Amino acid sequence: MSTLTPSRSLLALTALSLLAGAASGLVAAIFRLALQHVDRFRDGLVVWAHTQMLGFLLVITACLAAAAVAAALVRRYAPHASGSGIPHVEAVLSGALPQAPYRLILVKFFGGLLAIGSGLALGREGPSVQMGATVSNLLGVTFRCNADDCRALLAAGAGAGLATAFNAPIAGAVFVLEELVSRFDTRITIVTLGASAGAIAVARLILGDALDFHVAELPYPAFGTVPVHLALGIVVGALGVAYNRAIIVTLGATDRLRRWPVELRAGFVGALVGLMAWFAPGLVGGGDVITQRTLDGADTATTLSAVFLLRFGLGALSYAVATPGGLFAPMLVLGSQSGVFYGILCRHWLPGITHPPAAFGVVGMAAFFTAVVRAPVTGIVLVIEMTGSFTLLLPMLAACCSAMLVPTLLGNAPIYDSLRERTLRTAEREK
Fold first, then answer.
1. Residue among 129, 30, 24 at smallest CA distance from 83
2. Which residues pair with residue 326 across a beta bridge?
3. Dihedral sign, CA of 108, 110, 111, 113?
4. Which residue ranges make up each domain of the chain?
5. How far is it, in rounded angstroms, from Cα 335 to Cα 123?
6. 409-428: per-residue pLDDT in tens?
């Protein structure tokens, strides 16, 4: 039993949170940097393959193999590394599941590189959150912290991973309180802030301090645009419900294919992604390039709607094949596209609206995140930190209000609640 007084214990835990955050930030930053190289390699491979006689088959085979190997790593070495990993972190924090073996870090790292690098529509934040949580928990165990302090470090490490994934330290901390623990706890708050600070300090040495998305400076919107943004939230809220249901339905469909090896299922989707990459390499992968292109206003309304439908289906299909990868980045793609499409329609049908479509795209990102995850403060802070669009706070509040109202009235569960229940059911079946 520790002989430290509560104050000294908290001081020691805070110091350890800085170390845990630095370690989590280091792992997540290296992962993000490696993903950038893998994405460039895939794009270069596609370009080179177009000059080869059998290049078409080469691209499809490479994507198939990468996805299949990622699924095999998860199945054989760390089943809890499947998917986002955030539902598993939540289950561990609640005590419903034990901490996974620490080899999960390696499986999540290399499996995530293979899965996202193959072109699956998955985000880097899921692996970053779960690796950060696991690294921090490992440090807590190493320093012989008690169970409560280990859980606090695990939560803080998860926030540090998210902070690093999107260069969004405040959003990482808010995510822990709003989504992972769903309450304000002074001890966890202090540890989480310390871990986010440590993570960003290290990550920025490796990645720099540039915004994830570059948006032209936007003026403060007029008060009269509030109804327009409330309506945007209603539209995006309905789309978020549809996306949640698409993910759950697709996961249910893969459950009915259990007689097929998971590697075969992942390889099949990888082959489809390879086919897409051959014809349109810019449409596969996590989607940051698509989001930036959307915010730049480079696509017509017709193109936006077509790419939205394609990414909507690809996102659900990619998540269902049990490889490491998150949901945030694909959601930001869909949110930006739905917002910009809505903005184009507003400028056409409501000439009095002078707000640029890109502004609606930024608001749409926060609203879509809110509709799917049901964590509006995290969504708003995350998007502001990623785009620097502080002037859009009022529209985001309005849109997120209605985006959260619609799925709540429809009785649609937040996506991570549904995925956590699914994780627990799977664990119960395997006992």
1. 129
2. 123
3. positive
4. 6-207, 223-264+275-429
5. 14
6. 999 999 999 999 998 887 77
d(CA 10, CA 8) in angstroms, rounded, equals 5
pLDDT at 1: 41
Q: 83: helix, coil or strand?
A: strand
Residue 255 has pLDDT above 90, yes or no: no
CA distance 127 to 165: 9
What pTM does this model have? 0.93
Q: What is the DSSP secondary-structure string of 100-163?
A: PPTTHHHHHHHHHHHHHHTT-S-BSHHHHHHHHHHHHHHHHHHTT--HHHHHHHHHHHHHHHHH
Q: What angle do CA 300, 330, 27 make, to 5 degrees?
A: 135
Rounded CA gap, 344 and 276, in Å?
27
User: Residue 326 carries which DSSP code?
Assistant: B
Three-state DSSP class for residue 295: helix
- Mind listing the pLDDT tens digit for each residue in 19-59? 999 999 999 999 999 999 999 999 999 999 999 888 899 99
Res 99 pLDDT > 60: yes
Q: Is 223-264+275-429 a CATH 3.40.50.970 domain?
A: no
**How far is 68 from 293, CA to CA, in rounded Å?**
30
Q: Which two structure tokens, joined as six digits, stand for 41?
A: 């390699």
> Residues 113-141, buried b or exposed e (16+ Cβ, 10 A)?
bbbbbbbbbbbbbbbbbbbbbbbbbbbbe
Q: Are 312 and 270 in contact (CB under 8 A)?
A: no
One fold for 6-207 and 223-264+275-429: yes
Dig out the tokens for 418 from the structure: 């549904």
Q: Length of the chain in residues, anyone?
A: 431
Q: Does domain 6-207 bear CATH number 3.30.457.10?
A: no
